[in-house]
């Protein structure tokens, strides 16, 4: 819901702080800031919950604490009731106010009570100490940079590169304290690797299906608790169709948006499911030749991503969220995370179960800097808050307890998801194999044509101050036979692609992009009498 920025310490400069906040302007509608000696704090707020009264930075009733907050706490109503019973009085209805009250009541333990997608900073105004926290999956971002006498904190890397110093990241599921202009000490409050540990494995298909269905439906329910129109990013595949099905049931004021090549299977499937559900549907038609170097540059500027494949996907995401903004949609749900949780990648099934679980955990731990970073940047740059119901902590924990044989069965990936929702989705969706939109339509290969420029463009924005562009880890895994240890070592030894790899990639992409032109040149010419009749 916001972009946040803070400069804390005796050297905090109002002019520098204002520039940081201005760089985050796309993340919201209004700028709100507070200037105090040694504490400069502000937000660029996207007004979603309690739109008029949830002004930030929010201060506690006793004026001790100041909060800058990005995201949503979906259980804020339950927490409000609990805190009110403990004596807290509330001035409005926002989750912002509930979050600070929870911190006042439970201190650092408050973060373990939150169900949501968030990143925030709580500053003790008299000392300048700042408490930083980020949600367990890393849906919402938080970064910091330290200069003599001042600590800078911001929602995006681009707001910090102007300081010219190394940039640090608050990792997913971490929290801790930062001294003004001093040390940042962070530690995990939740370890995804041990989530669900000690709980029994759920290996009965009927029980697993019921639990998956209940968990996902509830996750969608809390994410559509708004009086605003809700958008759904619809690819026509299993996951996004499932999200659309329940959004339509739980929040009828919704719209679906699809991006794809005209006539591609993705667009056809998306049109069909939207029509069957009676949901208004917008299609952003994009042809491979429409993607130019300027589009790639803009995607890199917006996304700050560090893997090639994620950048390519961001190129396609930007025009999709642009259309949502044009429709006036502020809140949208996506199907991201299902493949990682429920066995949508071949690598999970090509190795022994123990190795598969390690790959699974590695993918989950890195979502914050890959898939989720793409979703956050490309949506928030267009003023849209994207929510990811598959990555609710309850759904993630459940997926941790399911054995691999329930995720892949009879050659069918995400088998348990298909089983759980067999009676609510049509067969043409349930039986459709995984077919990523960008690959099937040629958009991926078109963007790949510009891949040799990615690292240079990334450096031009100063993003290497956090991390340089690195090779696609999935590609490294494939070359290492899905051996995680070998792949990690290989990635450290050769973090970026070699010149030879770039050349080979360029030749392959050029061949693919040239094929349509060759077909047009050598194919038979149509006469007016040969034209296909229009549908009757």
UniProtKB/TrEMBL annotation:
Record keyword Plastid present: no
Similarity remark: Belongs to the asparagine synthetase family.
GO biological process, any: asparagine biosynthetic process
Pfam families in the record: Asn_synthase (PF00733), GATase_7 (PF13537)
Residues that hold ATP according to the record: 259
Binding site for L-glutamine: 95
EC number: 6.3.5.4
Protein name: asparagine synthase (glutamine-hydrolyzing)
């Amino acid at each position: 819901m916001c972009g946040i920025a803070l400069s804390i310490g005796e050297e905090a400069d109002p002019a520098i702080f204002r520039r940081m906040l201005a760089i985050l302007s796309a993340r919201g509608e209004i700028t709100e800031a507070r200037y105090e000696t040694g504490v400069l704090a502000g937000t660029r707020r996207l007004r979603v919950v309690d739109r008029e009264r949830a002004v930030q930075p929010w201060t506690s009733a006793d004026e001790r604490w100041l909060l800058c907050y990005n995201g949503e706490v979906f259980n804020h109503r339950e927490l409000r009731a609990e805190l009110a019973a403990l004596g807290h009085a509330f001035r409005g209805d926002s989750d912002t106010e509930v979050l600070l009250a929870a911190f006042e009541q439970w201190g650092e333990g408050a973060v373990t009570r939150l169900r949501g997608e968030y990143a925030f900073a709580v500053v003790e105004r008299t000392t300048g100490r700042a408490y930083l926290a980020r949600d367990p999956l890393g849906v919402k971002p938080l970064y910091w940079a330290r200069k003599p006498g001042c600590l800078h904190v911001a929602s995006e890397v681009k707001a910090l590169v102007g300081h010219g110093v190394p940039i640090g990241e608050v990792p997913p599921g971490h929290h801790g304290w930062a001294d003004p202009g001093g040390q940042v000490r962070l530690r995990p409050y939740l370890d995804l690797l041990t989530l669900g540990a000690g709980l029994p494995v759920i290996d009965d298909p009927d029980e697993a299906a019921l639990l998956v269905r209940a968990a996902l439906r509830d996750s969608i329910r809390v994410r559509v608790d708004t009086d605003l129109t809700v958008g759904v990013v619809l690819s026509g595949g299993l996951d996004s169709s499932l999200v659309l099905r329940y959004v339509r049931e739980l929040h009828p004021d919704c719209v679906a948006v699809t991006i794809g090549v005209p006539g591609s299977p993705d667009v056809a499937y998306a049109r069909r499911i939207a029509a069957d559900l009676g949901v208004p549907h917008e299609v952003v038609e994009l042809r491979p030749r429409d993607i130019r170097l300027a589009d790639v540059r803009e995607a890199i500027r917006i996304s700050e991503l560090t893997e090639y494949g994620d950048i390519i996907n961001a190129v396609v995401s930007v025009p999709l969220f642009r259309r949502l903004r044009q429709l006036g949609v502020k809140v949208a749900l996506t199907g991201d995370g299902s493949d990682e949780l429920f066995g949508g990648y071949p690598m999970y099934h090509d190795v022994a179960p123990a190795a598969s679980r390690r790959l699974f955990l590695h993918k989950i731990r890195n979502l914050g800097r890959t898939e989720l970073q793409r979703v956050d940047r490309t949506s928030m740059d267009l003023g849209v808050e994207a929510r990811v119901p598959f990555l609710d902590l309850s759904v993630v924990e459940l997926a941790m307890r399911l054995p691999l044989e329930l995720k892949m069965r009879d050659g069918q990936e995400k088998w348990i998801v298909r089983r759980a929702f067999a009676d609510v989705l049509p067969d043409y969706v349930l039986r459709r194999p995984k077919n990523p939109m960008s690959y099937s339509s040629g958009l991926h290969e078109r963007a790949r044509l510009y891949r040799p420029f990615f690292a240079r463009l990334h450096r031009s924005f100063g993003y290497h101050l956090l991390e340089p562009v690195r090779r696609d880890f999935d590609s490294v895994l494939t070359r290492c036979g899905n051996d995680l240890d070998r792949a990690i070592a290989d990635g450290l030894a050769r973090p970026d692609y070699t010149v030879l790899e770039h050349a080979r990639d360029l030749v392959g992409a050029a061949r693919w992009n040239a094929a349509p032109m060759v077909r047009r040149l050598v194919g038979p010419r149509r006469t007016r009498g040969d034209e296909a009749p229009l549908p009757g």
